[in-house]
Amino acid sequence: MIAGLILSAGESRRMGRDKALLTYYGRTFLATILGNLIAAGMARVTVVLGHHAEIIQEEVDLAAARVVVNHQYARGQTSSLQAGLAAALADFPEAIVLCLVDHPAISAGVIAIVKAEFESSHPLVVIPTHQGQRGHPILINHALFAELLALPPEQPANAVIRKYRHATRFVEVSDPGVLLDVDNPTTYEQLGSR
Predict the structure, then answer these.
(1) CB 43 within 8 A of CB 50
(2) What is the residue range of 47's domain?
(3) Share of the chain above pLDDT 90, in %
């Protein structure tokens, strides 16, 4: 079983408002990503909230997901990854598809491609690329979970992912949405179709 994991706990300081609640094609970023993970066949999805967790839960229907609130979100993204991963372990997933809430343009089709790549060869990591550039989401094999859970909170998950580049499957996709990181008002303006 492959599970989805969405990190949506940060303070969105550069954006100035909660990225989870920004809209893309009329739906919030968080609802869009959750819907796409489910449409791509994720059996379970865990959403990690932190900053403004109560407000986000009031605004977004998360009934289809397991919600984890990371009260230590100020310690950084790794703490949120670890909180979500620890909760997802209850389902014994073979792998997780890791999505960040500021990447709303990742389609269900791309997620399905990443999932299928894992199912065919079970690499340690699967990363979609577009025109040779690494994108999102990142699929992580359960074999790396313990190492990720052991990371100090100030260390990025990439510290583990990059270590296994030799065992990573890069999958070229035609969808530029895998590269779209909406991190500030300028990139949000460039997103279009809101």
Answers:
(1) no
(2) 2-186
(3) 80
